[in-house]
Amino acid sequence: MSTIVLLIITGLGLGALYFLVASGLSLIYGLMGVLNFAHGSFLTLGAFAGLEIARRMDGASWITLFASLVVGAVVGAVVAAATEFFLIRRLYNRHIEQVLVTVGLALATVALFDGIWGTDPTYVTGPAWFSETTEILGAKVPNDRFVLIIAAVLVLLGIVLFLKFTRFGLIIRAGVENRSMVTALGIDVRKAFTVVFAIGGAAAGLGGVLASHYFGYVSPQLGGSLLIFAFIVTVIGGLGSLAGAAIASALVAVLQQFANYYLGGTGDLTVVLLLAAVLLIRPTGLLGSKA
């Protein structure tokens, strides 16, 4: 029983990490129709920014962690907004060009990170509480998993509340439905779309800092490896569905943990088979809508 509890909770922690990456992908695609293959670069840059802040502060304290999270989120938001402003804004409704530009940006940034921080992983340390465990129903759960779950829940609630109850959220939703009408009212929809990218980048940057503590290191390939699972989660949940991404993140990660433990480390294969099954049975995903 304790093993099952441990696998479920650690799976939810990993799923929370997937969601922090997938939420930005799902939000950007759902509201703007952009598949951003450079999203992993926002995560990696946020992780390195958090690392640099930690190096300049008093080691593994809670204040250092909080500062790293804030800086990682801000850096991710700024870089994502700049990407939308300088590159994506001219390519709306031109999907092939979007893919080429964002894939090229992802490859270029990995090379850039290699040049600045080197190709070897850089190890990080967090507060001592992170390396401790909390016993739940006999299972000793690493404490950092709880931080990941709380962060994912707060991001989900924050995005939903922003879209439903703020002026920018109203403009974004209206602009998606009828951009010409909103523009005719004198509202600059382009700024709202830049905000969407910034929100997605902030979630990725936040996820990057937490991912560095989850894995214990930062490397230029960190974002790329997580982006693969983020895309899988986004497709299974339904392209553009934030709730679908949240459900799929938990489902994929828990299934991955159980398969790794009970099926000889076949978690990644099991996730790919799940993706194939969803595409065959329900191509729109769990909560996706038909075009």
UniProtKB/TrEMBL annotation:
Protein name: Branched-chain amino acid transport system permease protein
The species this protein was found in: Alpinimonas psychrophila
Keywords, comma-separated and alphabetical: Amino-acid transport, Cell membrane, Membrane, Transmembrane, Transmembrane helix, Transport
TM region positions: 6-27, 34-54, 60-87, 99-117, 146-172, 192-215, 227-254, 261-281
Lineage of the species this protein comes from: Bacteria, Bacillati, Actinomycetota, Actinomycetes, Micrococcales
Family stated for the protein in its record: Belongs to the binding-protein-dependent transport system permease family. LivHM subfamily.
Gene Ontology CC: plasma membrane
Top-level taxon of origin: Bacteria
Protein topology in the membrane: Multi-pass membrane protein
Biological process according to GO: amino acid transport
MF-aspect GO terms: transmembrane transporter activity
Cell compartments where the protein resides: Cell membrane
